[in-house]
Amino acid sequence: MTVEEHTFRREQQASDAARNAADQARGPLAVVQRRRSSDWSGEPRDPAEDSIWKAQRDVITAASETLADHEPNPEVVSLCEGLAERLELGERERSCLLAAAKVHDIGRVTMPTEVLDKPGPLSSSDWSLMCQHTVIGERILRSVPEMIGVARIVRSSHERWDGRGYPDGLRGVQIPLASRILLCAEAFHAIQSERPWRPARSESEALEEMAARAGSQFDPRVVAALHTVAEARRTPLRRRFGRS
Predict the structure, then answer these.
(1) What is the mean pLDDT of the chain?
(2) DSSP letter for each residue of 179-243
(3) For residues 189 and 85, what is the distance between their CA atoms, to the nearest angstrom?
(4) How far apart are CA 158 and CA 89, in angstroms?
(5) pLDDT value at residue 89
(6) pLDDT band at 35 (very low <50, low <70, confident <90, very high)
(7) Tally of CB atoms within 10 A around 23
(8) How far apart are CA 125 and CA 196, in angstroms?
(9) pLDDT level of residue 19 (50, 70, 90 thresholds)
(10) 4 Cβ contact partners less than 8 Å away, ≥ 6 residues apart
(11) How far is CA 80 from CA 207, 208, 225, in A?
């Protein structure tokens, strides 16, 4: 089986699993509808719209849990939640962000093991293949209409603030805010995790590295919010009781 055939087969399997999960979550309700631009705001909605969104959220949750090939990283999800609150994301975008935090690497499961587990640097062809994982992830997620918002976030989750990311070379505010948050949260966690080629770094070292990359890889506003969230997580009791 060629690399292309392997990738295509795994993509089809993931898409089928997502559709099956969505079908079960919908039950007897037909909740598929095209999201309006207002879905991304935090404005109050009438009860009918809220009930439709709750049904959509149930589908997103079920499909996300099915798509994850391993347990979602709770630290990345928690960081995204804190950043979403700090940066005042609307309910719809926040829900899609948290789903994306669980499945943003779904496209990687379609990649051959020999590429994913390669001990040394990737060749140019291997890197070109890996750079497709967000596009593949987007296609898998778009197989479920309710997850179009999640797919949008996943596609842009490796775009850089300076425009040197992939797959579209977006820069600055062209990148969805939720994608900028996800990139920042995942990188912050990754820096503190041990890798075959380097040891894990401390939280303070990770924050310093994130600050050094603000304005190039990361949105400076998201990095500033990350520092605030990290500080709040370190001193919850002091902040709760207003102690300095």
Answers:
(1) 82
(2) HHHHHHHHHHHHHTS-BTTB----HHHHHHHHHHHBTTTB-HHHHHHHHHHHHHHH-HHHHHTT-
(3) 18
(4) 20
(5) 94
(6) very low
(7) 13
(8) 22
(9) confident
(10) none
(11) 16, 19, 11
Kindly compute the dihedral angle of the four CA atoms of residues 90, 95, 97, 102, in this order, to the nearest 10 degrees: 170
Residue 238 has pLDDT above 70, yes or no: no
Q: What are phi and psi of 80, to 5 degrees?
A: -60, -40
Question: How far is the C-alpha of 216 from the C-alpha of 64, rounded, in Å?
Answer: 30
Per-residue pLDDT reduced to its tens digit, 124-146: 777 787 788 899 999 999 988 88
Residues with Cβ within 8 Å of 191's Cβ and at least 6 positions away in sequence, in order, are: 200, 201, 205, 206, 209, 210
Report the distance separating Cα 95 and Cα 109, nearest Å. Answer: 23
Q: Which two tokens stand for residue 191?
A: 């820096």
Tokens in use for 24? 């079960």
Q: What is the pTM of this model?
A: 0.82
Phi and psi at 214, nearest 5°, equal -60, 130
- 202-212 burial: b if 16+ Cβ within 10 Å, else e: eeeebbeebee
Residue 195 burial (C-beta neighbours within 10 Å; 0-12, 13-18, 19+)? exposed
**Residues 176/177/178/182 CA torsion (nearest 10 deg):** 110
Instruction: Look at 238 and 132; give whichever has higher pLDDT.
Output: 132
Rounded distance, CA 149 to CA 152, Å? 5
What digits encode the pLDDT tens for the residues 64-78?
A: 777 775 566 889 999
Whether the bond into 167 is cis, omega within 30 of 0: yes
